[in-house]
Write a structure and sequence with these properties.
By secondary structure, the protein is an alpha+beta fold. It is built from six helices and nine strands, in the order H-E-E-H-H-E-H-E-E-E-E-H-E-E-H. The chain has a five-stranded antiparallel β-sheet with strand order 1-2-3-7-6. A four-stranded antiparallel β-sheet has the order 5-4-8-9.
């Protein structure tokens, strides 16, 4: 069984990382290529794994000059986003550059984190939002970033890995309804998250 836990030993010092950063970034770009799914014009799901989370921690440590003794907080913050063998984990990002347009759009998207799903034939897996903090306000405004878990059974994992089914990611919010079909490359990349 592969280790899905981020250990302190997985993180290198800022000095070592800064020397390897260019090569690591190139590898992460390749890794992420088929882990990003655009669902409609302004929302993307970035499916995370241990490598993407280690990269995020390394970048945070370097750019914010976080000392080794303070890395535990970063490891604790990002570890829940590493798939644990029977799930896929995604960061949902609402990507609108224009500030006013983004503000107006987010004002109508409350609860969107509960409306994201993976569809495998007739089976539907709804996302469960990370509960670190409430990302929808009482007045219905959504955050532009959500962390989502899709929990699978062993049967659904087999169906996901089979090549004879169309698998989709969808959002069914009243103000944003879109679907995306996962390519073979997407499926191959994400299947590696299952143990």
């Amino acid at each position: 069984m592969k280790n899905t836990k981020i250990e302190f030993s997985d993180i290198v010092s800022n000095e070592v990382y800064s020397k390897q950063r260019k090569e690591i970034r190139t590898e992460i770009i390749k890794l992420k290529k088929y882990r990003r799914i655009d669902v409609g014009p302004v929302i993307s799901l970035y499916f995370e794994n241990k490598e993407t989370m280690i990269y995020q921690i390394q970048e945070m440590a370097l750019t914010e000059n976080i000392k080794p003794e303070d890395l535990k907080n970063e490891i604790d913050a990002y570890s829940p986003l590493v798939p644990q063998g029977e799930e896929l984990v995604a960061t949902l990002m609402i990507e609108i550059d224009d500030v006013i347009r983004r503000k107006n759009f987010l004002a109508r998207l409350g609860g969107i984190e509960q409306k994201v799903k993976i569809i495998i034939g007739k089976d539907i897996i709804y996302a469960k939002a990370e509960e670190d903090l409430d990302r929808t306000t009482a007045d219905g405004k959504a955050s532009s970033v959500h962390f989502l878990h899709f929990n699978f059974t062993q049967d659904l994992i087999k169906k996901f890995k089979s090549t004879d089914k169309i698998i989709q990611v969808g959002i069914e919010h009243d103000h944003y309804g879109h679907m995306a079909i996962l390519s073979k490359n997407n499926l191959d990349a994400l299947s590696k998250d299952f143990i």
